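Note to self: keep these together.
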Amino acid sequence: MNGNRTKNNHLPRLYLISSGEEMAGSDTLLLNQLALLPRSHPCMVQIREKKLSTKELLTLALKARKIELPEGTFLLMNERVDLALAASLDGVHLPENACSAKVLRTLAPKLIYGCSVHSPSALRVAEEAGADYLLFGPVFDTPSKRIYGAPQGLEKLGALCRATSLPVFALGGITQKNAALCMTKGAYGIAALSLFRDTARLADTIEELYLQLNP
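Structure:
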């Protein structure tokens, strides 16, 4: 990893992904979530809003960047390196079929680069590209992914974790009841959307998860 970035084994273990339903405006779910993060628990936060225009995405990212976040929190943009740089974010998350992290690092060497992977072959590609962390899933059943087939399951999660030294975040159908099962299979942390949607319980949810996820 580039020496200017936090080492990947010091990344936060909780990974919050935005809802995908953000609307242009000042009072958004993501901004509320960021403002409510417990001060003692940093998170990875990915802005993943495919319905917003480039201008709207940049506006959202700039507002997110202005919020005082827990120390060690990383703000990431889904795929768009240009917007990550424009908003002074910390990194970019790349879908499995996106441009290689190796190529993008030549343009923005100080950013963190994460990659989604769904198979051992995709893992090899991500490793060779110099990814800093991986998202693997869906581990459990989740309505949004049913059209793609059955969930990957805990055994495949474990096999992938054993096959790499990179931090692996388990994604898909994660709840407070099954998060610890992912850790027993070697996951570095867990990633979720719906788990963090209830802003009234967000701080408590994060506090409870950190008790399970931090060894």
